[in-house]
């Protein structure tokens, strides 16, 4: 696991056994295969995306942030930048339309025009396949929270970190932007842990692809 100068809030020592998905060699094999395919796709679209990002708002092509993964372990997540430079410093100026330990605004003015397209098509998340290949994330799991979000966790929120974070998961496949209540996200994450199997992961991956394609006008 990568080490960083910033540390995650201390996670209470759980008495729970490690979740089966974390120990599954089959899941890890699927993650590696999916990450290789995903990175190959990322390489194919990198130049046009990078050029569009820079022309829209000159600055870094990638955006990175420290997130919390399995049992609070920190890692650096990677995405294509969809917001203006130094967007985090401007967050206090934007209204939070979500409830609980999550930030969301459907009309966030920090998002660039190119960023809106990248988010609508989920292309901004392609670099996360590197996180999957490194083992910090999985193709399917829970949404990786920020350090500030985790600092405000209540005891029952920690259970959602009993599996690796994923590029997609229950709430992405079954709600995405329509879910604005953090407690609902926690409920969906816990449902994923209860229902987990390799077949269920594959089902969520296929459903996520369908959701993304629909948002691109295929449905």
Structural overview:
By secondary structure, the protein is mainly alpha-helical. It has one domain (28-218). Helix content is 44%, strand content 9%. The protein has helices at residues 20-23, 25-56, 113-120, 128-134, 147-151, 170-174, 182-195, 198-218, and strands at 62-68, 74-80, 138-140, 166-168. A two-stranded antiparallel sheet has the order 1-2. It has a two-stranded parallel ribbon with strand order 3-4. Strand 1 and strand 2 form a beta hairpin. Helix 2 packs antiparallel against helix 4 (128-134). The model is unreliable at 1-5 (pLDDT under 50).
Quick tags:
two-stranded antiparallel ribbon; 219 residues; 44% helix; mainly alpha
Nearest-integer average pLDDT: 88
Radius of gyration: 17 Å
Strand order of the largest sheet: 1-2
Low-confidence stretches: 1-5
Q: Which bin fits the share of residues in helices? A: 40-55%
Outline type: globular
Give the strand content. Answer: 5-15%
| Major pleated sheet | 2 strands, antiparallel
Count of helix runs: 8
A few lines on this structure:
The protein is mostly helical and 219 residues long. Helix content is 44%, strand content 9%.
Question: What order do the helices and strands come in, and which of them pair?
Answer:
Blueprint: H1 20-23, H2 25-56, E1 62-68, E2 74-80, H3 113-120, H4 128-134, E3 138-140, H5 147-151, E4 166-168, H6 170-174, H7 182-195, H8 198-218
Parallel strand pairs: 3-4
Antiparallel strand pairs: 1-2
């Amino acid at each position: 696991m990568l080490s960083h100068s910033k540390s995650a809030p201390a996670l209470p020592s759980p008495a729970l056994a490690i979740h089966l998905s974390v120990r599954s060699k089959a899941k890890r094999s699927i993650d590696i295969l999916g990450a290789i395919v995903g990175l190959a796709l990322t390489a194919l679209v990198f130049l046009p995306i990078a050029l569009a990002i820079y022309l829209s708002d000159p600055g870094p092509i990638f955006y990175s942030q420290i997130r919390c993964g399995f049992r609070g372990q920190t890692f650096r997540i990677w995405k294509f930048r969809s917001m203006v430079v130094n967007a985090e410093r401007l967050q206090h100026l934007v209204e939070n339309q979500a409830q609980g330990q999550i930030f969301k605004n459907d009309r966030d003015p920090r998002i660039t025009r190119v960023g809106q397209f990248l988010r609508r098509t989920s292309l901004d998340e392609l670099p996360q396949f590197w996180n999957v290949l490194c083992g910090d994330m999985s193709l399917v799991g829970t949404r990786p929270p920020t350090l500030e979000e985790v600092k405000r966790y209540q005891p029952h929120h920690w259970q959602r970190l009993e599996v690796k974070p994923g590029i997609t998961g229950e709430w992405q496949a079954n709600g995405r932007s329509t879910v604005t209540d953090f407690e609902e996200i926690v409920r969906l994450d816990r449902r994923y842990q209860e229902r987990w199997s390799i077949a269920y992961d594959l089902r969520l991956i296929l459903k996520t692809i369908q959701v993304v394609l629909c948002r691109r006008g295929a449905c």
